[in-house]
């Protein structure tokens, strides 16, 4: 599929959100990835959160323009996703289902072109929900909206809108979400003096509660194998993360969360190990 154009609506503000959210966690997690000669990738994850253990195994097989993903977890749930790329020029089809809940089946079509993108998804049951999104623009500026409509209640479950501006070294986005109740403004900039790191600022406004939240964060590339990330909001919530490449295919991630305005509370720590033999 073409990589040109404005991209999907879900990509608006994604880089800023990833810097503030991705890889942060307070659980202990080990992930092992392996590949077979037949082209099958296996990804096994075990997570300990509190005193409970959970895990899943994901297998993926790719052949030409098709891919099949199967995920089995400790709750005896099976997620299956079947993807076909370029069923039509610039179009992708994705079919998914979670068992034993056979009513969870969903069919999605994505279309990406030079100046527009469109997605449509429908649940495969008697009263389907219809999800859709559309984006117009260029790789530099994009306007988009998304929504979800329930045929059972004849109501919109959600509708969001957003705009993004992208330059070689910075990205800005404005998103109006939660049916117009939440405004999120973010700005991300690459900083050469952080050795290839990035800084981000995000402001959210919840109109129903008159609540404002300011969050700032940054990443710093210590060396070719080590990256440090940190974030802080106006409520005193501080997060820090260190990710180190132990071997060419193994990553160790250590993260922590602290409440600087409530020092009597104990900090929370997470540990993740990702191995790819």
> Architecture in CATH?
Beta Barrel
| Count of alpha and pi helical runs | 1
- β-strand percent reads over 45%
Helix-strand makeup class: mainly beta
The general outline is globular
Order of helices and strands: HEEEEEEEEEEEEEEEEEEE
Q: What integer value in Å does the Rg equal? A: 21 Å
**Low-confidence parts lasting 5 or more residues at pLDDT below 50?**
none
Question: Could you characterize the architecture of this molecule?
Answer:
The chain is mainly beta and about 280 residues long. It has a single domain, classed as Porin, CATH 2.40.160.10. Helix content is about 5%, strand content about 65%. The chain has 1 helix and 19 strands. One of its GO terms (molecular function) is voltage-gated monoatomic anion channel activity. Pfam families: Porin_3 (PF01459). This is Porin type.
Which features would summarize this protein structure in a list?
277 residues; mainly beta; Porin; 19-stranded mixed barrel; 1 helix
Which helices and strands appear, and what pairs or packs with what?
Layout: H1 14-21, E1 28-35, E2 40-49, E3 52-63, E4 66-73, E5 78-85, E6 91-99, E7 106-112, E8 116-123, E9 129-137, E10 141-150, E11 155-167, E12 170-177, E13 182-191, E14 197-206, E15 211-223, E16 226-233, E17 237-247, E18 250-259, E19 268-275
């Amino acid at each position: 599929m073409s990589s040109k154009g404005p991209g999907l609506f879900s990509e608006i503000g994604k880089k800023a959100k990833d810097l503030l959210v991705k890889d942060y966690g307070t659980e202990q997690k080990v992930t092992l990835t392996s590949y077979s000669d037949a082209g099958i990738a296996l990804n096994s994850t075990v997570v300990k959160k509190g005193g409970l253990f959970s895990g899943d195994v994901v297998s993926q097989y790719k052949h030409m323009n098709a891919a099949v993903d199967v995920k089995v977890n400790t709750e005896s749930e099976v997620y299956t996703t079947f993807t076909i790329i370029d069923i039509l020029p610039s179009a992708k089809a994705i079919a998914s289902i979670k068992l034993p809940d056979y009513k969870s089946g969903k069919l999605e079509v994505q279309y990406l072109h030079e100046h527009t993108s469109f997605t449509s998804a429908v649940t495969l049951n008697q009263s389907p929900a219809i999800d859709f999104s559309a984006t117009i623009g260029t790789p530099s500026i994009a306007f988009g909206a998304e929504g979800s409509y329930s045929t059972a209640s004849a109501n919109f479950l959600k509708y969001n809108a957003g705009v993004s501006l992208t330059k070689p070294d910075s990205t800005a986005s404005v998103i109006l979400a939660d049916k117009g109740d939440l405004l999120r403004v973010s700005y991300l900039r690459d900083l050469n003096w952080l050795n290839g790191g990035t800084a981000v600022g995000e402001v959210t406004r919840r109109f129903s509660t008159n609540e404002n939240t300011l969050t700032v964060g940054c990443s710093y590339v210590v060396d070719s194998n080590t990256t440090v990330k940190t974030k802080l909001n106006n409520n005193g919530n501080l997060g820090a993360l260190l990710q180190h490449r132990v071997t060419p295919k193994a990553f160790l991630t250590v993260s922590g969360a602290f409440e600087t305005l409530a020092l009597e509370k104990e900090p929370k720590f997470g540990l993740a190990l990702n191995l790819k033999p």
